[in-house]
Amino acid sequence: MCFTISVTTEKAEKAIVDYLNTNAGVQMHFDFDDFGEKHLVSGFSHPELPIVKQGSIELGEWGLVPSFVVKEDQARDMQNKTLNARADTIRERKSYKDAIVSQRCVLVVDGFFEWRHATNQKIPYYIYPNDGTVFYLGCIYNTWTDKETGEMKDTFSIITTEANSMMEFIHNSKKRMPLILSKNDIKAWINPESSIDNVNQLMRPFNETQMSAHSISKVASYANKNRNYPEIKDAVEYNETTQGDLFA
User: Fold this and answer.
1) Are 188 and 202 in contact (CB under 8 A)?
2) Number of domains in the chain
3) Is residue 229, in this structure, part of any structural domain at all?
4) How far apart are CA 231 and CA 29, in angstroms?
5) Would the pLDDT of 49 be above 90?
6) pLDDT tens, 155-180?
7) Which residues pair with 101 in a beta bridge?
8) pLDDT in the model for residue 120
9) pLDDT value at position 241?
10) Quick one: pLDDT band at residue 247, thresholds 50, 70, 90?
11) For the segment 108-149, what is each residue's pLDDT rounded down to a tens digit?
């Protein structure tokens, strides 16, 4: 699955400014000066992240809240369950089946994190574009309204697909990966008029030849430690046959 990502200002802003310059009329509704660096951020903290919609770029809260949810406490509980939406069941699930039809968006990230299950240990990996740019993650969104207060907020889920060969090795427990779109596919993905067949064709594993990955410090596995610093993505080598604590 995909619960942990990296979104740093320099790369995200460059990609988004490029998108704005090549797509006339798109409005941006947040300021990068107020965004803050996110070298490693967990979806379970429900951060606000930049999502590209048809005609606008906005901050959306990670964890889609469907319209049938009524109260804020129910919404928060729901968000812990909707960080990811599986491509193979997305049209069947009550929480997602409306959004996939016409509420598709793209999340711009530097990369993402996943864990490989080895002998008595879980080894964290950082996965990133091998050209040093960004990944465009295919997502769905919903603008949820609190029925009690009238408050509205944008929320989204990252779609996942079957793993490519690289991700089968890294994410060897679930063998999933986030839906990564090519830059040229963004327009079709976010267009609410795109056909079902077109959208389905886009929900496929990304080409591993355009991805790089390396193992990193096991500090990345501890949610109670500060992991939001650039060096968290530095390469660390492991001996997978070493016996030891799961998070040693």
Assistant:
1) yes
2) 1
3) yes
4) 30
5) yes
6) 999 999 999 999 999 999 999 999 99
7) none
8) 85
9) 62
10) very low
11) 999 999 999 998 899 999 999 999 999 999 999 999 998 888
Tokens of 236: 């660390």
- 15 alpha carbon, distance to own chain's centre: 16
- Whole-model pTM? 0.95
- Mean pLDDT over all residues of the chain? 94
At residue 244, the pLDDT reads 39
- Our measurement of the distance from residue 165's CA atom to the centroid of its chain's CA atoms, rounded to an integer in Å, reads 19
pLDDT the model gives residue 122: 94
**Is the residue at 95 inside a domain?**
yes
How far apart (Å, rounded) are the C-alpha atoms in residues 157 and 177?
13
pLDDT at 248: 35
Answer yes or no: is 239 within a domain: no
Query: DSSP assignment of the chain, as one string?
Result: ---EEEE-HHHHHHHHHHHHHHSTT-EE-S-GGGT--EEEEEGGG--EEEEEETTEEEEEEES---TT--SHHHHHHHHTT-SEEETTTTTT-TTTTTHHHH-EEEEEESEEEEEEEETTEEEEEEEEETTSS-EEEEEEEEEEE-TTT--EEEEEEEEEEE--HHHHHHTTTT-EEE-EE-GGGHHHHH-TT--HHHHHHH-SPPPGGGEEEEEB-GGGG-TTS---SGGGGSB----TT----TT-
Residue 247, in any domain of the structure: no
Give me the CATH number covering residue 92.
3.90.1680.10
CA distance linking residue 138 with residue 177, whole number of Å: 11
Q: C-alpha 77: how far from its chain's center?
A: 19
Give me the phi and psi of 159, to 5 degrees please. Answer: -80, 140
Instruction: List the one residue out of 135, 134, 66, 136 whose CA is nearest residue 103.
Output: 66
List the domain range (segments joined by +) for residue 32: 4-233
